[in-house]
Amino acid sequence: MINIMKNKEKSFTLVELMVVISIIGLLSSIILVSLSNAREKAKIATSLSFSSQVQNFIGMESVGEWSFNNNLNDTFSGFNNNGTWVGGGSPNYVPSADGKLGQAISFDGNHYVQIPASPSLYPRSDHAFTAEAWINATSLPASGSGTVICRPGHFSLGIAESGAIRLSVWVLGTGTSIYLVDDRVKPGEWHHIAATLIPPGAVKIYLDGIVVISSSYVFGGPQSSYPDLYIGAACGAFEYNFNGLIDNVRIYYEPMPE
Fold it and tell me: Which domains occur in the chain, in start order?
């Protein structure tokens, strides 16, 4: 007598399916994190290259550079435009740009750096300047903009509540010109921002080494006053102190070449 064994079709149990799905989800997360890290490193590398180009082009026109490596000193220009910590206590220094730039300062929205006015910080009569900085915002402002660097009566560079870069340029007798950029700054990520004013009135804003806006404006005459320079502090209406990390702030009174 021949016994015929019937083969039963083997199927996955619910537990087995859940294990497979969990493994796939874990692998996907690892891949996404790896891709995100790779993009972040590539962005930082591009920005470092761009910042080096800025220094190569107009570095001799620097009037202040604050690298924040355990101090608030002007470390490059030679004018000794050293800063002072305002708001009490001492600055909190932390690793910068994934360790690529030494240290940065952590700003909490209450403290800021003040650089006293000096003849070397006086702007040119044609308003020309270039400003750059590395930032990592803890959060975006609820309204208005969080100011990274500003000089009352001249310019202010920061980020708006949408994450857009905001550049305000004071024009003698005609109020303020504001430029908002569609490209977004993301909280928790390092970004390099820069702005330049090219006489007689061309304005360019850069995000992570790429021009994101180019515009023009007719500017007035030279300023009549020369106030202090501020890092992380609000300078005008609808501006607020910065909340996050700031590093390698540089000011040049020379425009970027077109």
Answer: 39-252 (2.60.120.200)
